[in-house]
Write a structure and sequence with these properties.
Chain lengths: 326, 276
């Protein structure tokens, strides 16, 4: 077991090393002068020379790479447009992205677990067919279109929800206000703003996870233990929820962790559609402002997150299924 | 195969939508009622033909520059189709050989290939793509290459899983015992058995790349002046006054992606492939 953890951790470190090479190569391994590219078509020669000096472009590639990694891990990589360390900007915006992704995952978990289980139990009924059609809709729906349509219907026509922005307080602030001052208004306002973006982000996950849960449950249906449990007189509910569902959880956890990470990437689009001030929107703005140090830091930040989540999920397996030993 | 396809409603609907889409893309210049880029500023934001202020000269209405939306959607199908096919093709072209090598030889070859794949699997593909495309000017070629770079690892990982299963089947061992060389075994025994998963992967990946291209265009990096994602993004600014622009361009993307998923699903069942 511990040898396995060590090996997995080494892999994780190797992956991160690779990601730093990609992030560095993004600017430095493509044809063309990075300084000229960063400054865009209206750059002056002086401007380019000054930036070349600032980015130390006249030094050898390897020296620059080592300096880049050094800056990255000391948190010294500077954003060009904000004139601030890139990581502090990322951490500042991260809570908003987490609010959005966790909300989307919660919606997806509730909807897809119930639909997936019912679909498997009532296999080949009208419910099953419509659920599977709807999951494919969710998978095929471009999130920027769904977001725009939700804005059109619920913000423009019905005026039920705001079309844009995050609202005045974050989730933690809203909770603190609620507990300390009994301020219910800000709490409601937070969810009012969160609803449409979270719903948009959850559609794809709902589609994917519902299908996985259904398939995974169907694999359990004909197993002998299910028959034994039924013949010993357990209620159908207990058989399905406590035994079959629990045994089908491994692929579900895998897909959830994969989707969680994909959601962080998907947040790039949804945050842009709804003007949600998270890491995704920060990245899009950084790219438009040609603030590449910030983009590089963002790429490393996202992968760091991905790698850590994956490592944790692998460890979680052993708790879910005690038969798994590494 | 065709008989079975016609009997399955999902597959039938899917392939009909795809055929229509290919037909429209091929004959865009005959089908489009207007030039997709001609701006008639006196005819800005005309609603679709059936609405009260509509005009059947512009069946789906016009955009903010007075361009015919239907013609733009017809021409936009070309970009989606070309990038979808080129991108998915390139991913498989790179992913399949790497998967064969990694899955068959195992050992250090596998380690090296899969560790590099891990790096690309851990970076959000869309973020990498927009970061690159903003630097390199979007063209059909650059966008295709960028998608390939951002997503070859998925092809490698998916197909490698299948290769690992195939190499454990007895006929591979029998071929080895009979003295067949490694390359011969790969070409003659492993490769033919990966055809199923490769076909299913390609069908689903065309859908993913079409979504990818639309996302990129939506964020403002379009490699063409007629792209569905681009129209959707432009329409979003007028969402409160002109609902039709974003609605129809998004509907086009949705229908094509849905059709490819229908077909991919059916192919998966038909070819009996397990995709995780």
């Amino acid at each position: 077991m511990s040898a396995y953890i060590v090996r997995r951790s080494i892999y994780a470190l190797l992956t991160l090393l690779g990601v730093t090479i990609v992030a560095f190569g993004l600017l430095n391994l493509q044809p063309g002068d990075p300084a000229a590219l960063l400054l865009g078509p209206f750059a002056t020669d002086q401007g380019i020379q000054a930036l070349r000096k600032e980015l130390r472009l006249d030094e050898p590639l390897l020296t620059r790479y080592i300096a880049f990694v050094g800056n990255l891990f000391r948190g010294n990589l500077q954003s060009i447009s904000f004139k601030q360390p890139a990581f502090s900007l990322l951490f500042e915006r991260f809570p908003a992205t987490v609010e959005l992704t966790v909300a989307a995952l919660l919606i997806a978990a509730i909807v897809s677990m119930s639909t997936g289980i019912i679909s498997a139990v009532k296999r080949d009924t009208a419910f099953d067919y419509s659920a599977s059609a709807l999951s494919l809709f969710g998978i095929s729906m471009p999130d920027f279109w769904l977001g725009t349509m939700l804005i059109l219907v619920f913000a423009v026509f019905l005026r039920w929800f705001p079309a844009f922005g995050h609202g005045p307080v974050s989730f933690s602030q809203a909770v603190i206000l609620l507990v300390t001052k009994g301020d219910f208004q800000n709490f409601v306002k937070f969810f009012h703003h969160l609803s449409l973006p979270a719903l948009t982000l959850s559609a794809h996950v709902i589609g994917v996870v519902t299908r996985v849960i259904r398939t995974s449950m169907l694999e359990e249906v004909n197993k002998e233990y299910v028959m034994v449990l039924r013949s010993k007189g357990l209620a159908e509910r207990t058989v399905v929820i406590k035994h079959m569902f629990r045994n089908s959880l491994i692929p579900v956890v895998t897909i959830f962790s994969m989707e969680f990470v994909k959601l962080l990437g998907g947040a790039v689009i949804v945050e842009t559609v709804f003007g949600w001030p998270g890491v995704g929107l920060l990245m899009v703005n950084a790219i438009n402002a040609r603030d590449y140090p910030l983009v590089q830091a963002g790429i490393v930040f996202f992968s760091l997150f991905f790698v850590v989540v994956n490592l944790l999920v692998d460890l979680l397996y052993t708790f879910l299924d005690p038969r798994i030993r590494y | 195969m065709l008989k079975k396809l016609l009997k399955n409603p999902k597959a039938l609907v899917g392939s009909m939508i795809i055929l229509t889409f290919v037909f429209v893309a091929l004959f865009a210049s005959y089908l489009a009622p207007h030039n997709p880029n001609t701006q008639v500023l006196s005819k800005r934001l005309i609603p679709p033909g059936w609405s009260q202020k509509g005009n059947w000269e512009y069946p789906l209405g016009t955009d903010a520059l007075g361009r015919d939306l239907l013609s733009r959607l017809i021409y936009g199908s070309r970009v989606s189709l070309i990038i979808g096919i080129l991108g998915a093709g390139a991913c498989v072209l790179i992913g399949l050989p790497l998967a064969l090598l990694a899955g068959y030889y195992r050992g250090w070859v596998d380690e090296v290939i899969m560790r590099i794949a891990d790096v690309f699997l851990s970076i959000p593909g869309l973020l990498l793509a927009i970061a690159l495309v903003a630097l390199l000017e979007p063209t059909i070629l650059s966008v295709t290459l960028i998608f390939t770079l951002a997503s070859w690892a998925w092809a490698t990982r998916t197909i490698r899983g299948e290769v690992l299963k195939i190499r454990e089947i007895e006929f591979v061992e029998a071929a080895k015992a009979a003295g067949a060389g490694n390359l011969y075994i790969i070409a003659r025994h492993i490769l033919p058995n990966t055809v199923g998963i490769t076909i299913v992967f390609t069908a689903l990946w065309v859908a993913i790349i079409i979504l990818f291209e639309a996302s990129l265009s939506f964020l403002g990096f379009s490699c063409s002046d007629t792209s569905w994602g681009w129209d959707l993004a432009n329409g979003k600014q007028y969402i409160s006054t002109a609902w039709w622009i974003s609605t129809f361009s998004g509907l086009a993307i949705f229908l094509v992606v849905l059709a490819l998923n229908f077909l991919g699903d059916w192919l998966r069942d038909y070819l009996d492939v397990k995709l995780d």
